Amino acid sequence: MTQALAGKRGLIMGVANDRSIAWGIAKAMHEAGAELAFTYQGDAFGKRLEPLAASVDSDFMVDADVTDDASLDTAFARLADRWATIDFVVHAIAFSDKSELTGRFLNTSRANFKNSLDISAYSFIEIARRAHPMMVDNGGTLLTLTYQGSNRVVPNYNIMGVAKAALESATRYLANDLGPEGIRVNAISPGPMKTLAGAAIGGARKTYKHTDLNAPLRSNATLAAVGGTAVYLASDAGACTTGEIIRVDGGYHVLGMPQPDHL
């Protein structure tokens, strides 16, 4: 996929540090020739992002709070001032109260349910609404990130499983809405990864080890593999792929039980 994104430009949302899935995607897209812009939330994340953005030749960073309509309006207005059109947006944003990512799902609080669904699922709709006018002339790609906890019970994933299920459903509905305008909407579903977000889930280390031992490829997902998948989906090679949940998990999703040695 060398230079598969040459001449394309887009927005990456959700880089927390150099181990973020969003960063793996950004690096791969840069290597494929894309021009990139970034959002962050708050000064602390902005300071972490600045050298990373510079390393992929980007000087466009804007603070954006996905729970604040005015903040999103400002971010996309600034983006439109920079580029009249964009070719892709990567939505890598999710959140839940860490204290509710252990123990029983039964104990999910109303407040955290609303907040988790708002940030992790509804924000994708808000971003699609704002990105869509910048894509109507030439089409484009909207990408988000999900996880198999959306359709199978994963210990401690709790409310995030429900949020990701909503996100996947939103992906399909947005794909149908925006398809006539040539805008493709897809989600990438990596296996467990050692990210800042992944570390918040109770029992994360056991989950990584279990996947490494049992996935058909005997490996967790890598940033490079997820990034390569994003490049494909945003490139002309992905022109007829929309409404999909693309799994990048070493094949773990095909299993009905662990490998014989680990039963």
Automatic annotation (TrEMBL):
Biological process according to GO? fatty acid biosynthetic process
Catalytic-site annotation from UniProt: 147 (proton acceptor), 157 (proton acceptor)
| Sites where the protein binds NAD(+) | 14, 20-21, 41, 65-66, 93, 164
Protein keywords: Fatty acid biosynthesis, Fatty acid metabolism, Lipid biosynthesis, Lipid metabolism, NAD, Oxidoreductase
UniProt pathway annotation: Lipid metabolism; fatty acid biosynthesis
Q: Which residues cross the membrane?
A: none
Q: What EC number(s) does its UniProt record assign?
A: 1.3.1.9
Swiss-Prot/TrEMBL catalytic activity: a 2,3-saturated acyl-[ACP] + NAD(+) = a (2E)-enoyl-[ACP] + NADH + H(+)
Xref: CDD domains:
ENR_SDR
Q: Top enzyme class of this protein? A: oxidoreductase
Q: Which domain of life does this protein belong to?
A: Bacteria
One of the entry's Gene Ontology molecular-function terms is: enoyl-[acyl-carrier-protein] reductase (NADH) activity
Supply the InterPro entries for this chain.
Enoyl-ACP_Rdtase_NADH, NAD(P)-bd_dom_sf, SDR_fam
Could you say which protein family the record assigns here?
Belongs to the short-chain dehydrogenases/reductases (SDR) family. FabI subfamily.
What this protein is called in its record is Enoyl-[acyl-carrier-protein] reductase [NADH]
Task: Please tell me the species this chain comes from.
Answer: Sedimentitalea nanhaiensis
